[in-house]
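Following up on my earlier message about nicotinamide-adenine-dinucleotide. Here are the inputs again, as you asked, copied directly from the submission form:
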Amino acid sequence: MPMRPKNARTKTESKPSSSEIQAPKGKLGIMIPGMGAVATTFVAGVEAVRKGIAKPIGSLTQMGTIRLGKRTDALSPKIKEFVPLASLNDLVFTGWDIFEDNMHAAASKAGVLERDLLDQVKPFLTSITPRTAVFDHNYVKKLDGPNVKKGKNKMDLAEQVRADMREFKKTSGASRLVTIWCGSTETFIEQTAAHQSLKSFEKALNQNDEMIAPSMIYAYASLMEGVPFANGAPNLTVDLPVMQQLSRENSAPICGKDYKTGQTLIKTILAPGFKARMIGLNGWFSTNILGNRDGEVLEDPGSFKTKEESKLSVLEHILQPELYPELYGKFTHKVRINYYPPRGDNKEGWDNIDIFGWLGYPMQIKVDFLCRDSILAAPLVLDLVLFLDLAQRSKQLRGLGIQEWLSFYFKSPMTAPGLYPEHDLFIQLMKLKNTLRHLKGEELITHLGLEYY
Ligand SMILES: NC(=O)c1ccc[n+]([C@@H]2O[C@H](COP(=O)([O-])OP(=O)(O)OC[C@H]3O[C@@H](n4cnc5c(N)ncnc54)[C@H](O)[C@@H]3O)[C@@H](O)[C@H]2O)c1
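Thanks, got it. Here's what our run produced:
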């Protein structure tokens, strides 16, 4: 038998092959409930990149590479050349909002992008007008708007959203669709019996059960239409047995929740570093000022509680106090969000981190992150829609329901019931890239490295 040269690349034994991923033929329709700061920054950005007037900084699908084989192979193609992703030129958009502004007007009000850039993509943005929304003020206490659907019950509203989706598919000529929630943070809701099965959920829709929030109606509509759904807010939305069942049965992948940007991104970069070096933590105090509509919505205690739950669990999961009680058994973790209009979308986040080292000696770290919320979120939206579409075209992924390999993008990643989420950004990235290698039958990278010596 011929010997394999030492550095030759091998494919994995399980041998899934690229033929198990359908090619991205035709247009991909992106449907966005919530056409505010994040959504408009995303769509304007895609158009600016298509026109060659800006670069897709922050997007792994557009700028990232993936190493294949051994380090000595020097083979690191771009991710978008390695897996068959939809091209930016094939993306078409629609959305829903409670305000009537088209995307250009909404982007101007959001105040994230400069007028000069917005002017260059004005005709395209102006052409995207919001469909009437499924909305109820009781779930977002700080908002109210005129562009809202009327229906005899929640099932009727879901049927109207499904009709919107079919109409968009037909008129845009899209061959495939993806839904991504960029709407507001809703009030805190917990699972009830209504969320456990399709039968109980549909009964609850017909009975206008108050435990069914508007975001769940979009998710149900999307999954019933066989369309993947990503949840960018901390809302419960698809974190429900009924949605996971629908997702698997209809081969419509789901992922969530709550885009990992700003302060939580920094937290999940720093905390794994402390743990790697066995540095202890006494406390982590995080406070923010932000002045966009999201900040205003989060002033309501119900919406803030939803956000707080999503932000707080991160450190517990990364630091594993049960394994390291002397280091992480007693830390205090506080998160504050303050609505402060002068800053608009340009959030400032301060972290005071009390750590301790050798023999228990205390130290402090201060972080002052002057970030731009929607600038950090927009590339995540792009990656998520492209990867969810890939998942649906992949035989290996389409029937799994939750796409845990997309944890990289979320503050509060969804996992199979009973499984703790992986929050460490670097493990999340490895998981994502190994999933792509696996899909293409490439060897997984373990970073063992003994073979070089
Ligand atoms: N920007 C970030 O870094 C970031 C990070 C994580 C999560 N998020 C979440 O993303 C979401 C969007 O953030 P944003 O800054 O764009 O907020 P935004 O307030 O600018 O936009 C949200 C839009 O959703 C609309 N909306 C609310 N309920 C709706 C409904 N039921 N149907 C249709 N439209 C509805 C609102 O009218 C508004 O235009 C928020 O939930 C936010 O918490 C943002």
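One observation from looking it over: The longest helix spans residues 373-393. Hope that helps, and feel free to reply on this thread.
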